[in-house]
TrEMBL record:
PANTHER family: F-BOX AND WD REPEAT DOMAIN CONTAINING 7, WD40 REPEAT PROTEIN
Keyword Phosphoprotein among record annotations: no
Keyword entries, A-Z: Repeat, WD repeat
Keyword Repeat: yes
Family matches, as Pfam families: WD40
InterPro entries in alphabetical order: WD40/YVTN_repeat-like_dom_sf, WD40_G-protein_beta-like, WD40_repeat_CS, WD40_repeat_dom_sf, WD40_rpt
Protein name: Anaphase-promoting complex subunit 4 WD40 domain-containing protein
Residue stretches of each WD repeat: 14-46, 56-97, 183-224, 225-266, 268-298
Species whose genome carries this gene: Dictyobacter formicarum
Matches recorded under PROSITE patterns: WD_REPEATS_1, WD_REPEATS_2, WD_REPEATS_REGION
Length: 305
C-alpha cells in the first residue's frame, strides 16, 4: 500500500469523471477503487497513483450504486434505468444483466459467499429483490417500504437491512425474506446504512441530520451522532470496527468513534459540494469520498488517537 505510508501524505484526488459521481467502492483486496455517476460510466482505478485501469460503458443511464464481489473479481453496478449489470472487474465483460426492477436502483450488495445480490429500487419500483448473481435467477421480493435508498447484506449473518424514504430501517432474513425487526428511531428519510463488520450493529443516517447506531437484533438505540448541520447522505463503518465516517449536504466529512459517538478528527473540508458516497480501504487507513466530478482519498492516521 506504498503511498499510504509516505510521510506527510494526507490527501489526493481522482478526477477522471466528466460529471457528478454518486458511487464509490473499494475492492476487498485493497488494490482498486470503482466509481460511477452521471457520465454513465464506471471507472476502475489504482488508489496508489489515481490512474484509471478500465472504463465500463455498459449502462445507458446514470450510475447510482457499485458493489464488489467478496473475491474482488466482479462488480455489480446499477443505474437510473433500473438495470443491474454484473461484470468482470479485470476485463469489463458483462456476465449478466438483471432486469427485475422497473425504475432507479439505488443500492446493490453481495452476499458474503458471493453467490447472490440484493438490490433496492426507488420511486415507482419500491422493492428490494434478492437474486442469484451470475444467472439472475430471482429468489424473492421484499416489499412494504416506499423508495428504497439502501439495501445491505450483513457481512457475517444471513440478514439484510433496507432503508427508505419513510423513517424506518427494516431487518429481514436473507434466505426467506421474513421480517425480523424495524428500527423507527429517525425522523424523516433514512438515506444510508452500514453494518458493523461483525454484523451485530447497524449505523443509519438521513434527513434528520443524525446518525444512529443500534443493535441489529433488538433494535435498541446505542448511540446518536448529532454533529452534522444538514442531511446525511452517506455513512461507512471502518473494516476494523472502530470508526464511522459520515457526510452529506453540509459538504464536510466527519470521522467518529463507533462506541461513544465522539468526533475524532477535525472535519475534512476539501469538498465544495454535497458528498454522496464513502468507502474505507480494507485496512481502515484511507477514506474515499465522492462529490461532483471527483473522488478524494484521505489518509486516516489512527495512531494520532
Amino acid at each position: 500500500m506504498g503511498i499510504y505510508n509516505r510521510v506527510g501524505w494526507e490527501h489526493t484526488e481522482y478526477t477522471g469523471h466528466t460529471d457528478n459521481v454518486f458511487a464509490v467502492a473499494w475492492s476487498p483486496d485493497g488494490t482498486r477503487i470503482a466509481s460511477g455517476g452521471r457520465d454513465n460510466t464506471v471507472h476502475i482505478w489504482d488508489p496508489l497513483n489515481c490512474q484509471r485501469l478500465l472504463t465500463f460503458h455498459g449502462h445507458p443511464t446514470c450510475i447510482l450504486a457499485i458493489a464488489w464481489s467478496p473475491d474482488s473479481q466482479y462488480l455489480a453496478t446499477s443505474c437510473t434505468s433500473g438495470l443491474v449489470q454484473v461484470w468482470q472487474a479485470r476485463t469489463g465483460t458483462i456476465i449478466h444483466t438483471y432486469r427485475g426492477h422497473t425504475r432507479f436502483v439505488r443500492s446493490v450488495s453481495w452476499s458474503p459467499d458471493g453467490t447472490c445480490i440484493v438490490s433496492g429500487g426507488d420511486y415507482g419500483d419500491n422493492t428490494v429483490q434478492v437474486w442469484q448473481a451470475f444467472d439472475g435467477t430471482h429468489l424473492y421480493t421484499h416489499s412494504g417500504q416506499y423508495r428504497i435508498f439502501s439495501s445491505l447484506w450483513s457481512p457475517r449473518t444471513a440478514r439484510i437491512a433496507s432503508s427508505c424514504f419513510e423513517d424506518n430501517v427494516q431487518v429481514w432474513d436473507a434466505t426467506t425474506g421474513d421480517h425480523q425487526i424495524q428500527y423507527d428511531g429517525h425522523r424523516g428519510a433514512v438515506y444510508a446504512t452500514s453494518w458493523s463488520p461483525d454484523g451485530t450493529r447497524i449505523a443509519s443516517a438521513g434527513h434528520d441530520r443524525q446518525a444512529h447506531i443500534w443493535d441489529a437484533s433488538s433494535g435498541q438505540t446505542l448511540c446518536i451522532y448529532r454533529e452534522h448541520t444538514h442531511f446525511i447522505k452517506a455513512i461507512a463503518w471502518s473494516p476494523n470496527g472502530d470508526f464511522l465516517t459520515s457526510a452529506g449536504n453540509d459538504t464536510i466529512l466527519q470521522v467518529w468513534n463507533a462506541e461513544t459517538g465522539q468526533r475524532l478528527v477535525s472535519e475534512f473540508r476539501q469538498h465544495q459540494h454535497w458528498i454522496r458516497s464513502l468507502a474505507w480501504s480494507p485496512d481502515s487507513t484511507v477514506i474515499a469520498s465522492a462529490s461532483q466530478q471527483s473522488i478524494h482519498l484521505w489518509l486516516w492516521q489512527q495512531s494520532r488517537y
